[in-house]
Amino acid sequence: MGPEMESHIMTESTMIWVPAQFIHAPFRVLEVTRPFISSSASTLPKLTETGLKKLVREEMRDKMVFIDADGKQTDF
Known about the structure:
By secondary structure, the protein is mostly loops. The chain is built from no helices and two strands. The protein has strands spanning 48-49, 69-70. It has a two-stranded antiparallel ribbon with strand order 1-2. The model has no long low-confidence stretch (mean pLDDT 79).
């Protein structure tokens, strides 16, 4: 998280609040020992995201999904 891409490992139920314009993700599931749900919520009427590939090591980029959305999409 953040411009330093500091790692955080969650080992139990966790809720995270990410403020607007804060760099977050990617996330990776390293081990699963029980079912889990991941969800997100936003107060914006449209999705706005910027994928920052340059912050991810090059050898990891092809294993991740990057989303670029400017909030002007008309197809859902």
